[in-house]
Design brief:
By secondary structure, the chain is α+β, with helices and mostly antiparallel strands. It contains 8 helices and 24 strands. Bound molecules: zinc ion.
């Protein structure tokens, strides 16, 4: 953390005094003399000790450890703590501290590129530090968020500096089962709802978080962030597990210094492309063609799909992980399935003879999973699957789309990845839901629900 220069100087001086104080103390102890601190030495000792985790004690003389806040030994100041009120501007705060307009102008000018003073937000805390109530305030500290604060020097140079707080982390785990909603499964346990967003980051290629189902299970291993001992947020999710129906998904975060991301248990990226075709051993009988002559309708009509001719009953595969958003029948499409893979891509499979067992709206499917069988239902002359690829709501020719290949991690990464994976898998295994009384859970959910 950057300490304001003046404070660093004070600290150096006080350290010197501390040394003098300590040597005086030992000399006195050696002499076995009854001793006492002069008020001055005692004061400097107190002021010089920087807050540390353990309470300090010198012999039988407890020493009050000063509180260090914003890089200042806060005990040496008069502290005024407030929050920004509606309609309150920086100038209002500074005028109340007897600053004149030229001073305020200088502070605003110095804040350029550091902090936009027009962005003070209602309800955010600020602190004014004054040496003495008879004097002008020394510092204004504004906290735009828990991670940082801005120090405005109100005297002399009127410097404006922005400081990031030191974040410490602790690896934690969480687990839950969806009874009513993901919200309740997380917040009902007193956990941060940020976990849901981070879990989605890890599993977004496999799970459609808009269509979660009752009894789905999740487990997470993540970093809990702390600032000055207080929980402030969720950091990296290291490992995520999700079970929906019979399908289980694992995502392990791995960073080799060049790229980072989530990988499955075999080291393949979670973010993966699509199968080239939805049927094996088939041939393309008709290409995507915006100017095609329709064999049944006997007129020009764009063909938004690619037809794969295959014998009746040939299995049709989901080309990517996703959730079934439609499994129904229309006169034109016959039996068809539509799958949402992510916010960008959807695929559709027409003219099925029948759906595979368990395929219906809302069901999660994995890449390569059988979703139906080749038929000729709807407007079809013979057995084939008309495969349609939707990108951002438009039907496109998937044969022209370039997807990044889903290559596994290089061999040289595998030992480290395997070690990490096993470590986090062990933690996932141990993750259990926090037991909360039913009443508390529903209350927490109600109170926290935005
Ligand atoms: Zn077709």
């Amino acid at each position: 953390m950057d300490l304001p220069e003046s404070f660093t100087q004070i600290l150096k001086q006080k350290r010197k005094l501390l040394k003098i104080g300590l040597s005086t103390l030992s000399a006195l102890l050696i002499g076995g003399t009854l001793f006492y601190f002069s008020a001055d030495i005692k004061k400097s000792l107190q002021a010089s000790l920087v807050a540390s985790e353990k309470p300090l004690e010198l012999g039988s003389f407890p020493v009050t450890v000063p509180t260090l806040k914003y890089g200042f030994a806060i005990d040496t100041f008069q502290v005024l703590e407030k929050t920004i009120e509606p309609g309150q501007f920086l100038a209002d705060i500074l005028l109340a501290q007897q600053l004149d307009y030229p001073s305020i102008d200088k502070i605003v000018a110095n804040s350029a590129g550091v902090f936009d003073v027009r962005r003070l937000r209602v309800g955010k805390p600020y602190t004014i530090l004054t040496k003495d109530s008879t004097q002008q305030a020394e510092y204004l500290i504004y906290e735009p968020n828990v991670y940082e604060y801005v120090v405005f020097e109100l005297k002399e140079d009127k410097k404006v500096t922005r400081h990031e707080r030191e974040i410490t982390t602790e690896v934690r785990s969480a687990a839950g089962t969806l009874e009513t909603s993901l919200w309740n499964a997380i917040v009902g346990q007193g956990l941060s709802y940020d976990l849901a967003a981070k879990m989605e980051d890890a599993l977004q290629w496999s799970i459609d978080f808009h269509h979660l189902q009752k009894d789905d299970e999740f487990k997470l291993v993540y970093d809990q962030e702390f600032i000055e001992g207080k929980e402030v947020g969720i950091g990296q999710v290291h490992a995520a597990y999700y079970k929906t129906g019979e399908n289980e998904y694992h995502a392990i975060f791995y960073d080799n210094g060049k790229t980072d991301g989530y990988y499955d248990l075999e080291g393949r990226p979670m973010k993966r492309g699509f199968l080239k075709s939805p049927v094996k051993y088939s041939r393309i009988s008709s290409y995507y063609n915006l100017n095609r002559f329709h064999p049944i309708l006997k007129r020009r009509r764009p063909h938004y799909g690619t037809d794969y001719a295959a014998p009746y009953g040939t299995p049709i595969y989901a080309v990517g992980d996703g959730v079934v958003i439609k499994a129904s029948y229309t006169k034109g499409n016959g039996n068809f399935v539509k799958i949402k893979h992510d916010d960008t891509y959807q695929t559709q499979y027409l003219h099925m003879q029948k759906f595979a067992k368990g395929i219906s709206s809302g069901v999660h499917v994995k890449q390569g999973q059988v979703i139906g069988y080749v038929g000729s239902t709807g407007l079809a002359t013979g057995p084939h699957v008309c495969f349609r690829f939707w990108k951002n709501g438009k039907q496109v020719n998937h044969l022209n789309l370039k997807f990044p290949p889903a290559k596994p991690l290089p061999d040289e990464d595998m030992p480290r990845f395997t070690e990490l994976r096993d470590k986090y898998m062990a933690l996932l295994e141990k993750a259990h839901p926090v037991k909360v009384e039913d009443n508390d859970a529903s209350l927490a959910a109600e109170n926290g629900n935005p």
